[in-house]
């Protein structure tokens, strides 16, 4: 089962990583100025993850595929790692769809 891990960045901002059951990070958030905003981001991921239309499949300048998960308003709420192939990226998207809706929250900031 997946889990959201909340941590604090060096600049004091909060961020979350969605980790798969094997502990691998499958989605990383932007930085948030408050923990409440970070928690709202997690809820947005849980809501939007099952919808394939919310995934923006991209390719980095170095040719590596990755994806962004977007909210209904088009704002990016999470980004993936860089993958070696488009099929690996698709597996990453499927993993987010499977893990995010029921993921627990592990707050490591307190």
Automatic annotation (TrEMBL):
Residues 11-56, 60-107 form the DUF1508 domain. Residues 91-100 have a biased composition (Basic and acidic residues). Coiled coil: none annotated. Residues 83-110 are annotated as: Disordered. This is YegP family protein. It comes from Flavobacterium potami.
């Amino acid at each position: 089962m997946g889990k959201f891990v909340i941590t604090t960045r060096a600049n004091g901002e909060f961020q979350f990583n969605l980790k798969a059951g094997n502990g691998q990070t499958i989605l990383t958030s932007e930085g948030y100025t408050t923990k409440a905003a970070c928690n709202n981001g997690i809820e947005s991921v849980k809501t939007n993850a099952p919808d394939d239309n919310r995934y923006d499949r991209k390719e980095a300048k170095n040719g590596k595929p990755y994806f962004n998960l977007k909210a209904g308003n088009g704002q990016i709420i999470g980004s993936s790692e860089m993958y070696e192939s488009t099929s690996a990226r698709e597996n990453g998207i499927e993993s987010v769809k499977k893990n995010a809706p029921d993921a627990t929250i592990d707050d490591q900031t307190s």
